[in-house]
Amino acid sequence: MLLPIFVDLHDNNHNWIIFLYSCAITTMLATLILLATSGATCRFSARLGFMLTVCLWLTGSVVGALPLYLSPLPISLAGAIFESVSGITTTGSTVLTGLDNLSRSILLWRSLICWIGGIGFIGLALLLLPSLRVGGVRLFHMESSDKSEKILPRINQIANGIIIAYVGLTLACMLSYFASGMSLFDAINHAMSTVATAGFSTHDASFGYFSGKPAILIVSTIFMLLSALPFVLYVKLVLPGHSKRFIDPQVIVFLNIVFFFSFALAAWLRLHDHRTFHWIFLDVIFHLSSIISTTGYSAEDYQLWGPFALGIFFIISFTGGCAGSTSGGMKINRLIILWRITQTNIAKLLSPNVIIKTHYDHSNISSDVAKAVLFFVCLYMFCLVIGTALLLTTGLDFTSAFTGVLTALSNIGPGFGDIIGPAGNFSTINDNALWILSFLMLAGRLEIITIFVLFIPAFWREQF
After folding, report:
1. Is residue 294 annotated as involved in ligand binding?
2. How many C-beta neighbours within 10 Å does residue 193 have?
3. How many domains in the chain?
4. What's this model's pTM, rounded to 2 decimal places?
């Protein structure tokens, strides 16, 4: 919170006292927790791992909400929590309006929340949770299902390498934005938001504010796609003998999806648009990259592109980026495994006596992994249905309710429709709906099962 304080002091803005109060409250609570737990010993268990993960994200959400709630902004407690959860889960949905006139400290705080949330999404799973087996994976157990190999001898070395890659990508993105025509402040904020695939902007119009500067859209597209790739691959790239393993199946499939749909949609729009193809293609690939990477930027209302475009955006809202990145969604590797399972089962129907093994990246897919992927997809769909039903009870229309749940679970940002679409925001959503969406954003960020396991009675039994 010191950075926003310095910004307020530089701008001669009295909001610095809000961040000082928030910092004091946070420090006091942290000190009390440390004093209460000093000298205590406990055996690390699966139960403790699940609880610690959820508690860390809940605590981060509350800390992030403090300056927003204490500020002069016309925001309720539900709105402040929603904004903070949206940032720390790198969703990027917002209840704030008039961003162009907000104090720079508040804008910077929002960007810092999502940037910290992005690295926390990767780092927490690497450092804390390698002993927990959620989704049948070994590296990103709690928060992704990336079956990456161990490329360094110690897990903390992998984490350090990924942190360096994360910071380096942020700096490169910031410099590229600045060189493309953004102000330094905008470049810093949008770089943090882009690499975290969060989508928070310093302007109400998002990237529409930079209309007429195609270089900014190009830079954003490149870094959104880079941030949706597994960060462990950047560590591989600089290690001797590992650069040849830089590309894995999910990266190939992810990029193929982006470029296939971009060319298809651009070609379709060219039939109705007087602009040249390359300008149309730039608009299309920017927005498709924004949604599939779950960043959520928009330069215009792509809902006006027609039903074919809406269908494509709806489909890729489910996919998300690669496992091991900051992206949300179902993740590309899960979809690949799901497709391979489908192929295997169809083949077994045609040849029931033939033994067929399911492969992913030259490795057999175990029954545990297959069941975990199927369970996740079923749980995702269950949350989508139940969440939509709950939001409908708050008075939302079906489009806003359904796509609101979809964007929360996939951590995308904008939904569809006039209210929460790319040209709108969540400022008119009632508090009850905001609480539901905040829960769903946390559930989506923590791979759903991490949250829902806490509601299983067996979890609290002594023998768990």
Report:
1. yes
2. 29
3. 1
4. 0.90
